[in-house]
Amino acid sequence: MKRENAYLTDKQIDILKDKLLSEKERITNKQLEQERYMLDKNELSDPLDEASINVQTSHDIRFINRENFYLKKINKSLDTMNRGIYGLCEECDSEIGFERLSARPTAEMCIACKEEAEMAENNNIFDKRSKSLGKALHEVIR
Ligand SMILES: [Zn+2]
Questions:
Q1: For a FRET experiment, which of 12, 44, 86, 129 has its CA 20 to 30 Å from that of 108?
Q2: For residue 91, how far is its CA from the centre of ligand 1 (angstroms)?
């Protein structure tokens, strides 16, 4: 019988859903904690300490942005689960696989596409940041 959510069994879906939900809870709790912490800090703030607080705050904001990004991915995964298209690669529609999904329940690409995307990304960085180094390396490799 061909079902939606294709190759994953109901039990596998349940396991992955649990993972996603507990990650979601973990992040939400952490965010609440972080908010409380930032409020406390503002109350205790000493003008002399302003500079270090600003540095700390920008750290906090980066941290929160990263967590928000992850939270969005979790919600997106839960959404695709509800729509019955969870676990399929965004690029090529092939099966991501239960093993990979249990290590990374928010994975959106199969390993092959992910590796290709990362390689393209690395090449871009390489191109942009170190043309001269790239050329030097090329000479060495040749
Ligand atoms: Zn793929």
A1: 129
A2: 5
Q: Are 123 and 89 in a shared domain?
A: no
Q: In terms of residue numbers, what domain contains 63?
A: 10-109
Tell me the C-alpha distance between 14 and 115, whole Å.
Answer: 27
Judged by DSSP in three states, 100 sits in: helix
What are the backbone dihedrals phi and psi of residue 81, each rounded to the nearest 5 degrees, phi first? -60, -45
Between the two ends of the chain, the Cα-to-Cα distance in Å is: 55
Question: pLDDT tens digits, residue range 37-94?
Answer: 878 877 766 666 666 667 777 777 787 788 899 999 999 999 999 998 999 999 999 9
pTM reported for the whole predicted model: 0.70
Give the pLDDT confidence of 9-27 residue by residue, as tens digits: 999 999 999 999 999 999 9
Transcribe 27-62 into DSSP letters. Answer: HHHHHHHHHHHHHHHHHH--GGGHHHHHHHHHHHHH
- Give how many domains the chain has, as a whole number: 2
Query: Cα of 78 to ligand 1 centre, how many Å?
Result: 19
